[in-house]
Design brief:
This protein has 304 residues and is α/β, with parallel strands linked by helices. The chain has two domains: 169 residues, Globin-like (Orthogonal Bundle); 123 residues, STAS domain (Transcription Regulator spoIIAA, 2-Layer Sandwich), CATH 3.30.750. 67% of the residues lie in helices and 9% in strands. The chain contains eleven helices and five strands; from the N terminus they run αααααααββαβαβαβα. Strands 1-2-3-4-5 form a five-stranded mixed sheet, with helices on both faces. The N terminus is likely disordered.
């Protein structure tokens, strides 16, 4: 008989509906308590953030202001359980604090601090009724964990997006296509020439050739220490693509290491127009364009 009673007491079919109803009834009570205690809980949370030296790139006023916004959104998501609202809240939070230099571990820290502050508040309110406290926490913890996870994922995704955007901007600034004169462009490359940058370089160069109707492009790689095989292959393909668009390529500043890489992948350097330095490359380009190149001695210069 005792065994039969145990099975009855632990039967999911007899307890699940009641548990579900209790859960729906307890969540509004939980949210009402968090709203009624908003002032002291928000202040306690802000103090925890400051004591842990989180959000150090923000002023105390900014931390308190942000804590207010996050607290209200947090409780609002607890109340509605809306996935869409939760995702929007997490995205808005990430967009606000990433420009202020906030790191990933700080975001996780402040969200977990808030979860802890609210859980302690619930314990203090319901500790005299242990059974009720357990049911309250059963209603609170899954929602709180879902919020923490969504905020963390959203922050990482937004941070990665910002980093990619910054990298694209840096690459674009580091590979400018400059118009020297009509039909003549210069592309100075400085730094590491990896495959991704080589692809971006090709896009920028071909676009500039078309926009300026260029006939000759001087590609100066003096500032490139070395390239891998994939990037070297892409560089050769860029030369070929430029020719198809009617522009000849002059490569200047070719180092022995890069020359060896080009030979290694089977490039016939005799078919590439290479010049020792940038000045020589510009003079060769002007000759190809039909401009007369004349060196002026210091004594022949006209006074300003």
């Amino acid at each position: 008989m005792e065994h039969s009673e145990d099975r009855s007491q632990h039967s999911p079919s007899s307890e699940d509906p009641e548990t579900s109803i209790e859960h729906d009834q307890l969540l509004p009570e939980l949210v009402a308590h968090l709203r009624d205690s908003r002032t002291e809980l928000r202040q306690e949370w802000a103090n925890r953030i400051t004591e842990a030296s989180l959000l150090s790139s923000m002023t105390p006023q900014e931390v308190f202001s942000e804590a207010t916004t996050v607290y209200d959104n947090y409780v609002g998501v607890l109340e509605t359980g809306s996935v869409e609202a939760l995702q929007k809240y997490a995205q808005d939070l990430s967009e606000r604090i990433i420009p202020r230099g906030v790191e990933t571990h700080e975001v996780l820290g402040i969200v977990l601090f808030l979860r802890d502050v609210l859980a302690r508040s619930l314990f203090e309110k319901y500790h005299k009724d242990f059974s009720l406290l357990n049911r309250i926490l059963d209603a609170y913890e899954p929602a709180a964990n879902r919020i923490a996870n969504t905020v963390a994922v959203s922050f990482v995704q937004e941070r990665e997006r910002v980093i990619r955007q910054q990298q694209d901007a840096i690459r674009e600034l580091s590979t400018p296509v400059l118009q020297v004169r009509e039909r003549l462009l210069i592309l100075p490359i400085i730094g590491v020439l990896d495959t991704q940058r080589a692809q971006q370089l090709t896009q920028q160069l071909l676009s500039a050739i078309r926009r300026h109707r260029a006939k000759v492009v001087v590609v100066d790689i003096t500032g490139v220490a070395d390239v891998d095989v994939a990037a070297a292959t892409h560089l050769v393909q860029t030369v070929d693509a430029s020719r198809l668009m009617g522009a000849g390529i002059i490569i200047t500043g070719l180092s022995s290491e890069i020359a060896q890489t080009l030979v290694h992948i089977g490039v016939d350097l005799s078919k590439m127009n290479t010049v020792g330095d940038l000045q020589g490359g510009i003079e060769e380009a002007e000759r190809l364009l039909g401009f007369a190149v004349r060196r002026v001695a210091d004594g022949d210069r006209q006074p300003d």
